[in-house]
């Protein structure tokens, strides 16, 4: 749980503070570290960063449901190295109860953009959803099916300059939306640093480098799919990350669950007419 890690030494910031620090022309850098190293890393950042606090909570639960075509075309686009690629997902912020439908686009210029719309009511209007997705994707939205559910806890740090944001994801779990099989990553922490493209100094990157960590390419959707479909789907491109996960989990084992305890209905949306 995110609450296991000490965040009391950090000063806090609000969501409004975070929203005002837009990072439009940015570089995203990801790291996988062992949870045992997280406290050491956080302890060295208290003077340089503040932590997001909402409703008295400093570790937020996130639920994300990714969509793909029946043949997992969006997964294969990423695996095959297509430069222009997209991710489609719904996201639920448990702290606020808000839900969004999001389309994340990465271009051949390594720029990432995200468009989203608020989901309201138990069953959002399918026509509005289809129109939004077709505008963003340029393909029939009815081809999109629920593909992978991801749950995790997130800590968000903001540099005092406002030029850098750091997300720390723990308790990452993946679940097939239709097969009721889950896999967790106990003891694995995903750290993502979003910084200005020409920023010269980053305290958190300096610390991670000193601790011996190197950047990794990590997509929750692709890695979760590769883990749950091992032997049934192409995954050569993700072998370095899968090997890193294998190393981090030793001597722990991945936790498989045959029955789901999550209510995916909250995250699902209907795109049918």
Automatic annotation (TrEMBL):
Domain of life according to the entry = Bacteria
Q: Which InterPro entries match?
A: VTC_domain, VTC_sf
Per the database record, which ranges form the VTC domain?
26-228
Q: Please state what the protein is called.
A: VTC domain-containing protein
Native species of this protein?
Marinobacter salarius
């Amino acid at each position: 749980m995110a609450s296991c890690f000490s965040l009391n030494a950090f000063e806090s910031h609000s969501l409004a503070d975070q929203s005002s620090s837009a990072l439009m022309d940015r570089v995203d850098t990801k790291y996988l570290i062992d949870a045992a190293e997280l406290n050491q890393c956080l302890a060295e950042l208290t003077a340089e960063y503040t932590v997001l606090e909402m409703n008295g909570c400093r570790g937020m639960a996130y639920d994300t449901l990714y969509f793909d075509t029946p043949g997992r075309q969006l997964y294969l686009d990423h695996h095959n190295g297509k430069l222009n690629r997209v991710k489609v997902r719904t996201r639920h912020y448990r702290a606020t109860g808000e839900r969004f439908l999001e389309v994340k686009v990465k271009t051949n210029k390594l720029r990432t953009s995200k468009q989203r719309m608020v989901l309201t009511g138990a069953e959002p209007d399918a026509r509005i959803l289809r129109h939004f997705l077709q505008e963003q994707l340029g393909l029939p939205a009815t081809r999109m099916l629920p593909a992978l559910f991801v749950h995790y806890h997130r800590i968000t740090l903001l540099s005092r300059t406002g030029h850098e944001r750091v997300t720390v994801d723990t308790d990452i779990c993946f679940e097939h939306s239709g097969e009721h099989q889950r896999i967790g990553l106990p003891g694995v922490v995903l750290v993502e640093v979003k910084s200005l493209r020409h920023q010269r100094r980053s305290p958190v990157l300096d610390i991670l480098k000193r601790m011996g960590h190197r950047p990794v390419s990590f997509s929750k959707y692709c890695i979760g799919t590769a883990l749950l479909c091992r032997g049934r789907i192409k995954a050569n491109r993700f072998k370095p990350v899968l090997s890193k996960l294998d190393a981090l989990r030793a001597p722990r084992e991945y936790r498989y669950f045959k029955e789901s305890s999550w209510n995916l209905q909250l995250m699902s949306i209907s795109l049918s007419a």
